[in-house]
């Protein structure tokens, strides 16, 4: 008996014999020990489940609706597996085998075979819609391969139930993302058993698993490339475009389906301007974020391009992956991440002083133009703020605002910062080179602060860039067109610098197409109450402190001070006062004692205190002025007098 259980003896066994062996196995537990261990264990479980071994036909058919639901759930498995099953079935045509697919719940989803084998499988209950769970039909290869997560063949009498011993089956589990999602098998009359069947089934399962994994990766790949904000194109060595994502077709303004399979020349033609790019791609050269302007029909495509050669093991896989980054998008990223961000707008610029307002008005009206502008004024007067506000009000507002402080950079670095450099341009130059501020600021605004500190030799290079509207990186020879609005600023007296041959007159004129002279704070003392009020609010908020006030006397002192550091100094004084002053109202004494802030109070204000009526009038006037933040019209309105009357009183008390 033990010998009969050996695989090599099975083939020739007549039906009566296999049936007898099956019977003996059920009746004599000692004989069952001769079964393979995994089959033995399965039989033990089948007894435990109380499976009716004498079943002549299966009662395991599920209702149509449940079956439809199971098929819907395994739709993607069926879509992948059925073509593989069809192919397998073709190979074994005429040999009596049916190919079978079941889901993870052992529902038989699909059977494929030739007519004769399907006819047999119907008689043997190997049909769709049946459930082959061990709990229901005892030991069977479909369920056992999934339980063991390994391929297995089960021969006739090794099945637990009588109806199943007609056949021999080989099954392999289908595993996806580490989970068993079904099984594929081949079943035939037991006498057709072959040692090769299991190998075929394993190969089919492997193939299905690979397709599932590949489909998933290509889905991820598609979602990733389609959601990329950069264009991606793959070109093989003879210039055939083999892949293009949606973004790339948008950038190049071509239909991706039209160009895949076409040659790169069909897009970029033989235009000399495109030659460098086409040659780079077809010759498998490398580019890293190079700003190129390509021409396609009437369109000019301005992009940062990266070309990476593909080195496949197979020569047919060689080619180049090209990444297109739209320069406008790069610019807005640059604007967000590099240099200073432009937060200030004209609404943030405080000051009603007529001289200052005149400057602001010119700045506002010239925002729309591309002419260079030169901001002249002492340190801290608001040149940077005005430059930012101009950018934010201009058509370039969504592109970068880049600022470079020419005085803060070592002399030898200014050129590379401004114009960029190519790889190997000098010792210590970064691999792949570096993009300069001019290129980064493309379509935006470049704020050249402390322009008066630029060395003479660089002034020549700067002038050339401004005139030619293109830069050549240091160590390079390619002209890169740039469209940048220049706002330059200095606190030096440039006329004097020119007279001393330290600044080029031609650059001065070139930069100062529009020239703004921003008044120092001491010349706009009437703006001090407004500025004080504004900064007190901002600073208290920043430090989470309750809003503080400045006493009338302190305000007058602030208005009389010279402010060599201008608005920046005023901000600092107020910040210290907010941090240190014990009371909600910061008085003159505090400024004097804590900040060494020595400002004479207006003589008239003090001397008038002797005369009662005048001192009362002065007190009311000062308080109303303060309440109205030194706005004379509002003060006049509150006091019910004319503006002229207020001016007369201010003159009388020497407050003008
Ligand atoms: N009119 C204004 N309204 C509000 N804040 C201002 C105004 N002018 C200047 N400021 C503030 O004063 C400070 C100094 O201004 P800014 O840096 O623009 O001066 P600057 O002239 O560029 O100085 P520097 O020449 O030293 O670079 C900044 O914090 C700015 O926000």
TrEMBL record:
Residues 349-579 form the Sigma-54 factor interaction domain. Gene3D superfamilies: 1.10.8.60, 3.30.450.40, Homeodomain-like (1.10.10.60), P-loop containing nucleotide triphosphate hydrolases (3.40.50.300), PAS domain (3.30.450.20). PANTHER family: C4-DICARBOXYLATE TRANSPORT TRANSCRIPTIONAL REGULATORY PROTEIN DCTD, TRANSCRIPTIONAL REGULATORY PROTEIN. Keywords: ATP-binding, DNA-binding, Nucleotide-binding, Transcription, Transcription regulation. GO terms for molecular function: ATP binding; sequence-specific DNA binding. This is Transcriptional regulator containing PAS, AAA-type ATPase, and DNA-binding domains. Pfam families: AAA_lid_14, HTH_8, PAS_9, Sigma54_activat. SUPFAM superfamilies: Homeodomain-like (SSF46689), P-loop containing nucleoside triphosphate hydrolases (SSF52540), PYP-like sensor domain (PAS domain) (SSF55785). GO terms for biological process: regulation of DNA-templated transcription. InterPro entries: AAA+_ATPase (IPR003593), AAA_lid_NorR (IPR058031), GAF-like_dom_sf (IPR029016), Homeodomain-like_sf (IPR009057), HTH_Fis (IPR002197), P-loop_NTPase (IPR027417), PAS (IPR000014), PAS-like_dom_sf (IPR035965). Residues 216-261 form the PAS domain. It comes from Desulfomonile tiedjei (strain ATCC 49306 / DSM 6799 / DCB-1). Transmembrane segments: none annotated.
């Amino acid at each position: 008996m033990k010998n009969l259980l050996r695989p090599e003896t099975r083939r020739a066994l007549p039906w009566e014999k296999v049936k007898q062996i099956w019977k003996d196995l059920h009746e004599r537990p000692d004989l069952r020990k001769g079964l393979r261990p995994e089959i033995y264990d399965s039989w033990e479980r089948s007894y435990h489940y109380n499976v009716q071994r004498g079943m002549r036909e299966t009662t395991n058919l599920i209702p149509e609706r449940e079956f439809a639901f199971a098929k819907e759930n395994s739709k993607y498995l069926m879509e992948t597996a059925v073509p593989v099953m069809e192919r397998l079935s073709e190979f074994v045509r005429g040999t009596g085998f049916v190919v079978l697919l079941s889901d993870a719940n052992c529902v038989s989803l699909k059977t494929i075979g030739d007519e004769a084998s399907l006819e047999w499988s119907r008689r043997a209950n190997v049909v769709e819609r049946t459930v082959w769970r061990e709990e229901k039909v005892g030991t069977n290869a479909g369920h056992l391969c999934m339980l063991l997560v390994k391929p297995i063949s089960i021969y006739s009498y090794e099945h637990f139930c009588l109806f199943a011993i007609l056949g021999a089956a080989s099954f392999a589990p289908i595993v996806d993302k580490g989970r068993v999602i079904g099984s594929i098998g081949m079943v035939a009359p037991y006498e057709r058993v072959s040692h090769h069947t299991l190998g075929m089934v394993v190969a089919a399962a492997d193939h299905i698993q690979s397709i599932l994994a590949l489909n998933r990766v290509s889905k991820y790949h598609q979602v990733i490339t389609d959601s990329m904000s950069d264009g991606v194109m793959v070109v093989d060595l003879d210039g055939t475009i083999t892949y293009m994502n949606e973004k790339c077709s948008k950038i190049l303004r071509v239909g991706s389906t039209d160009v895949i399979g076409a040659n790169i020349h069909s897009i970029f033609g033989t235009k000399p301007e495109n030659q460098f790019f086409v040659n780079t791609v077809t010759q498998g050269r490398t580019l890293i974020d190079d700003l190129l302007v390509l021409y396609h029909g009437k369109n000019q495509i301005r992009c940062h391009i990266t070309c990476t050669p593909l080195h496949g093991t197979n020569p047919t896989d060689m080619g180049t992956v090209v990444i297109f980054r739209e320069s406008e998008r790069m610019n807005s990223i640059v604007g967000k991440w590099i240099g200073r961000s432009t937060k200030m707008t004209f609404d943030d610029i405080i000051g009603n002083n007529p001289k200052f307002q005149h400057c602001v008005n010119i700045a506002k009206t010239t925002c729309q133009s591309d002419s260079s502008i030169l901001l002249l004024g002492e340190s801290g007067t608001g040149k940077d703020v005005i430059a930012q506000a101009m950018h934010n009000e201009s058509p370039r507002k969504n592109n970068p605002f880049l600022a470079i402080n020419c005085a803060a950079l070592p002399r030898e670095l200014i050129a590379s910062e401004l114009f960029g450099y190519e790889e190997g341009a000098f010792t210590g130059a970064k691999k792949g080179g570096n993009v300069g501020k001019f290129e980064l600021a493309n379509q935006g605004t470049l704020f050249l602060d402390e322009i008066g500190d630029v060395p003479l030799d660089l002034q020549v290079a700067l002038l050339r860039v401004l005139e030619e509207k293109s830069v050549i990186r240091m160590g390079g020879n390619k002209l890169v067109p740039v469209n940048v609005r220049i706002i330059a600023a200095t606190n030096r007296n440039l006329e004097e610098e020119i007279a001393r041959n330290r600044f080029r007159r031609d650059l001065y004129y070139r930069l100062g197409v529009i020239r703004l002279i921003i008044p120092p704070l001491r010349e706009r003392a009437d703006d001090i109450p407004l500025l004080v009020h504004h900064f007190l609010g901002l600073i208290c908020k920043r430090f989470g402190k309750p809003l503080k006030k400045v006493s009338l006397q302190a305000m007058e002192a602030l208005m009389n001070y010279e402010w060599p550091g201008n608005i920046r100094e005023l901000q600092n004084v107020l910040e210290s006062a907010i941090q240190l002053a014990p009371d909600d109202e910061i008085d003159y004494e505090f400024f004097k004692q804590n900040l060494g802030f020595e400002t004479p109070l207006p003589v008239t204000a003090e001397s008038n205190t002797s005369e009662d009526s005048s001192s009362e009038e002065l007190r009311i006037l000062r308080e109303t002025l303060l309440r109205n933040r030194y706005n004379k019209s509002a003060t006049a309105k509150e006091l019910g007098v004319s503006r002229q009357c207020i001016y007369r009183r201010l003159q009388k008390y020497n407050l003008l």
